[in-house]
Amino acid sequence: MFNTIAPVYDGMNRLMTFGLDRRWRKRMVALLREYAPRKVLDVATGTGDLPLLISKTIQPALITGIDLSEGMLAVAREKCEKRGCSGKIVFERQDCLSLTFPEGCYDAVTVAFGVRNFQSLQQGFSEMYRVLAPGGILLVMELSTPRCFPLNVLYPFYAHRIIPFLGRLFSRDKQAYTYLPRSIEVVPQGEEMLSIFRSVGFVDTCCRPLTGGVCTLYIGRKV
Fold first, then answer.
1. Total Cβ atoms within 10 A of residue 59
2. Cβ atoms within 10 A of the Cβ of 176, count?
3. Are 158 and 152 in contact (CB under 8 A)?
4. Which residue intervals of the chain are DSSP H helices?
5. Higher pLDDT among residues 72 and 172, named by residue
6. Helix (H), strand (E), coil (C) string for 24-58
7. How confident is the model over 174-184, as pLDDT tens digits?
Protein backbone atom coordinates (compact mmCIF):
# COMPACT_ATOMS: atom_id res chain seq x y z
CA MET A 1 0.00 0.00 0.00
CA PHE A 2 2.74 2.47 0.96
CA ASN A 3 4.71 1.69 -2.20
CA THR A 4 1.60 2.56 -4.21
CA ILE A 5 0.86 5.87 -2.51
CA ALA A 6 4.50 7.02 -2.24
CA PRO A 7 4.31 9.44 -5.25
CA VAL A 8 1.34 11.32 -3.74
CA TYR A 9 2.15 10.85 -0.06
CA ASP A 10 3.62 14.31 0.62
CA GLY A 11 0.86 16.13 -1.22
CA MET A 12 -1.83 14.16 0.59
CA ASN A 13 -0.22 14.96 3.95
CA ARG A 14 -0.30 18.68 3.20
CA LEU A 15 -3.88 18.46 1.97
CA MET A 16 -5.31 16.34 4.79
CA THR A 17 -3.66 18.31 7.62
CA PHE A 18 -4.05 21.75 6.00
CA GLY A 19 -0.24 21.98 6.15
CA LEU A 20 -0.16 21.43 9.92
CA ASP A 21 2.07 18.36 9.54
CA ARG A 22 4.96 20.72 8.75
CA ARG A 23 4.30 22.77 11.90
CA TRP A 24 4.11 19.60 14.01
CA ARG A 25 7.47 18.38 12.68
CA LYS A 26 9.02 21.75 13.48
CA ARG A 27 7.76 21.45 17.07
CA MET A 28 9.28 17.99 17.28
CA VAL A 29 12.65 19.10 15.91
CA ALA A 30 12.70 22.15 18.21
CA LEU A 31 12.39 19.79 21.16
CA LEU A 32 15.00 17.42 19.74
CA ARG A 33 17.41 20.31 19.35
CA GLU A 34 17.52 20.77 23.13
CA TYR A 35 19.30 17.40 23.40
CA ALA A 36 21.93 18.24 20.73
CA PRO A 37 22.13 14.67 19.37
CA ARG A 38 25.09 13.73 17.17
CA LYS A 39 23.53 10.53 15.81
CA VAL A 40 19.81 10.27 15.04
CA LEU A 41 17.74 7.31 13.87
CA ASP A 42 14.40 8.10 12.22
CA VAL A 43 12.13 5.05 12.18
CA ALA A 44 9.31 4.69 9.62
CA THR A 45 10.94 7.59 7.81
CA GLY A 46 8.57 7.50 4.83
CA THR A 47 9.57 10.09 2.26
CA GLY A 48 12.22 11.58 4.55
CA ASP A 49 10.60 14.87 5.60
CA LEU A 50 11.74 14.57 9.22
CA PRO A 51 15.42 13.65 8.55
CA LEU A 52 15.66 16.52 6.06
CA LEU A 53 14.31 18.96 8.63
CA ILE A 54 16.61 17.58 11.34
CA SER A 55 19.60 17.91 9.03
CA LYS A 56 18.72 21.51 8.18
CA THR A 57 17.93 22.58 11.76
CA ILE A 58 20.27 20.59 14.01
CA GLN A 59 22.97 19.30 11.63
CA PRO A 60 23.94 16.13 13.53
CA ALA A 61 26.94 14.10 12.40
CA LEU A 62 24.72 11.24 11.18
CA ILE A 63 21.04 10.74 10.43
CA THR A 64 19.75 7.30 9.44
CA GLY A 65 16.23 6.95 8.08
CA ILE A 66 14.68 3.47 7.89
CA ASP A 67 11.45 2.18 6.39
CA LEU A 68 9.97 -1.06 5.05
CA SER A 69 8.67 0.59 1.87
CA GLU A 70 11.13 0.85 -1.00
CA GLY A 71 8.69 3.15 -2.76
CA MET A 72 8.82 5.62 0.12
CA LEU A 73 12.59 5.33 0.41
CA ALA A 74 13.03 6.04 -3.31
CA VAL A 75 11.16 9.34 -2.89
CA ALA A 76 13.21 10.13 0.24
CA ARG A 77 16.52 9.55 -1.55
CA GLU A 78 15.45 11.69 -4.49
CA LYS A 79 14.47 14.58 -2.19
CA CYS A 80 17.70 14.20 -0.27
CA GLU A 81 19.80 14.35 -3.43
CA LYS A 82 17.96 17.42 -4.72
CA ARG A 83 18.63 19.25 -1.45
CA GLY A 84 22.29 18.29 -1.33
CA CYS A 85 21.98 16.14 1.80
CA SER A 86 23.10 12.82 0.37
CA GLY A 87 26.28 12.78 2.45
CA LYS A 88 24.46 13.67 5.66
CA ILE A 89 21.49 11.30 5.62
CA VAL A 90 21.50 7.55 4.98
CA PHE A 91 18.26 5.77 4.05
CA GLU A 92 17.97 2.00 4.56
CA ARG A 93 15.24 -0.59 4.21
CA GLN A 94 14.87 -2.16 7.65
CA ASP A 95 12.23 -3.73 9.85
CA CYS A 96 11.79 -1.63 13.00
CA LEU A 97 10.94 -4.79 14.95
CA SER A 98 14.37 -6.29 14.22
CA LEU A 99 16.97 -3.55 13.72
CA THR A 100 20.44 -4.52 12.54
CA PHE A 101 22.19 -1.69 14.41
CA PRO A 102 24.38 -2.45 17.46
CA GLU A 103 23.27 -1.59 20.97
CA GLY A 104 23.62 2.01 22.12
CA CYS A 105 24.72 3.54 18.82
CA TYR A 106 22.23 6.48 18.55
CA ASP A 107 21.71 9.53 20.74
CA ALA A 108 18.10 9.99 19.62
CA VAL A 109 15.37 7.99 17.91
CA THR A 110 12.42 9.69 16.22
CA VAL A 111 9.19 8.38 14.71
CA ALA A 112 6.68 10.64 12.97
CA PHE A 113 3.27 9.24 11.98
CA GLY A 114 4.56 5.67 11.86
CA VAL A 115 3.93 3.77 15.08
CA ARG A 116 0.27 3.11 14.30
CA ASN A 117 1.53 0.82 11.51
CA PHE A 118 3.74 -1.31 13.78
CA GLN A 119 2.80 -4.95 14.08
CA SER A 120 4.00 -4.84 17.69
CA LEU A 121 4.46 -1.54 19.51
CA GLN A 122 6.23 -3.18 22.42
CA GLN A 123 8.75 -4.94 20.18
CA GLY A 124 9.32 -1.77 18.16
CA PHE A 125 9.93 0.38 21.24
CA SER A 126 12.13 -2.33 22.74
CA GLU A 127 14.37 -2.23 19.66
CA MET A 128 14.51 1.56 19.80
CA TYR A 129 15.50 1.37 23.46
CA ARG A 130 18.25 -1.12 22.60
CA VAL A 131 19.91 1.04 19.93
CA LEU A 132 19.77 4.20 22.07
CA ALA A 133 22.84 5.20 24.09
CA PRO A 134 22.33 5.70 27.85
CA GLY A 135 20.55 9.01 28.34
CA GLY A 136 19.28 8.91 24.76
CA ILE A 137 15.89 10.35 23.88
CA LEU A 138 12.90 8.86 22.03
CA LEU A 139 10.44 11.24 20.36
CA VAL A 140 7.29 9.82 18.81
CA MET A 141 4.71 11.95 17.01
CA GLU A 142 1.42 10.37 16.05
CA LEU A 143 -2.04 11.38 14.94
CA SER A 144 -4.60 11.02 17.69
CA THR A 145 -8.31 11.42 18.38
CA PRO A 146 -9.25 14.82 19.87
CA ARG A 147 -11.34 14.69 23.04
CA CYS A 148 -12.45 18.30 23.44
CA PHE A 149 -15.37 20.12 21.84
CA PRO A 150 -15.78 21.07 19.01
CA LEU A 151 -12.97 18.95 17.49
CA ASN A 152 -14.33 15.76 19.06
CA VAL A 153 -17.58 16.33 17.11
CA LEU A 154 -16.07 17.49 13.81
CA TYR A 155 -13.16 15.04 13.67
CA PRO A 156 -15.09 11.76 13.12
CA PHE A 157 -16.90 13.20 10.10
CA TYR A 158 -13.67 14.57 8.65
CA ALA A 159 -11.73 11.36 9.29
CA HIS A 160 -14.31 8.91 7.97
CA ARG A 161 -15.86 10.93 5.16
CA ILE A 162 -13.53 13.67 3.90
CA ILE A 163 -10.17 11.87 4.15
CA PRO A 164 -11.37 8.74 2.26
CA PHE A 165 -12.99 11.01 -0.35
CA LEU A 166 -9.72 12.89 -0.90
CA GLY A 167 -7.89 9.57 -1.04
CA ARG A 168 -10.19 8.30 -3.79
CA LEU A 169 -9.59 11.51 -5.76
CA PHE A 170 -5.81 11.71 -5.55
CA SER A 171 -4.41 8.33 -4.50
CA ARG A 172 -3.66 5.28 -6.61
CA ASP A 173 -4.77 3.08 -3.71
CA LYS A 174 -8.45 3.62 -2.95
CA GLN A 175 -8.24 1.76 0.39
CA ALA A 176 -5.18 3.55 1.78
CA TYR A 177 -7.03 6.56 3.14
CA THR A 178 -9.82 4.44 4.54
CA TYR A 179 -7.16 2.56 6.47
CA LEU A 180 -5.72 5.81 7.88
CA PRO A 181 -8.60 6.86 10.18
CA ARG A 182 -9.08 3.27 11.34
CA SER A 183 -5.41 2.99 12.28
CA ILE A 184 -5.58 6.25 14.28
CA GLU A 185 -8.55 4.98 16.28
CA VAL A 186 -6.95 1.68 17.30
CA VAL A 187 -3.41 2.88 18.18
CA PRO A 188 -2.83 3.41 21.92
CA GLN A 189 -3.02 7.07 22.89
CA GLY A 190 -2.02 9.24 25.82
CA GLU A 191 -1.22 7.37 29.03
CA GLU A 192 -1.80 4.02 27.31
CA MET A 193 1.03 4.77 24.88
CA LEU A 194 3.31 5.97 27.67
CA SER A 195 2.70 2.76 29.60
CA ILE A 196 4.21 0.83 26.67
CA PHE A 197 7.21 3.18 26.74
CA ARG A 198 7.72 2.39 30.43
CA SER A 199 7.22 -1.34 29.94
CA VAL A 200 10.39 -1.54 27.82
CA GLY A 201 12.46 0.66 30.13
CA PHE A 202 11.90 4.31 29.18
CA VAL A 203 11.75 6.86 32.01
CA ASP A 204 10.72 10.50 32.31
CA THR A 205 7.84 9.77 29.94
CA CYS A 206 5.33 12.44 29.00
CA CYS A 207 3.07 13.47 26.14
CA ARG A 208 2.12 16.82 24.64
CA PRO A 209 -1.14 17.17 22.66
CA LEU A 210 -0.85 19.41 19.60
CA THR A 211 -3.66 21.30 17.81
CA GLY A 212 -6.33 20.30 20.27
CA GLY A 213 -5.24 16.68 20.39
CA VAL A 214 -5.34 15.95 16.65
CA CYS A 215 -1.66 15.08 17.00
CA THR A 216 0.35 14.02 20.07
CA LEU A 217 4.08 14.15 20.82
CA TYR A 218 5.38 11.40 23.13
CA ILE A 219 8.73 11.57 24.93
CA GLY A 220 10.84 8.98 26.75
CA ARG A 221 14.45 8.69 27.90
CA LYS A 222 16.76 5.71 28.22
CA VAL A 223 18.35 5.30 31.63
1. 10
2. 19
3. no
4. 2-5, 9-17, 20-33, 49-57, 70-82, 121-131, 151-157, 163-170, 176-186, 191-199
5. 72
6. HHHHHHHHHHCCCCCEEEEECCCCCHHHHHHHHHC
7. 676 777 778 88
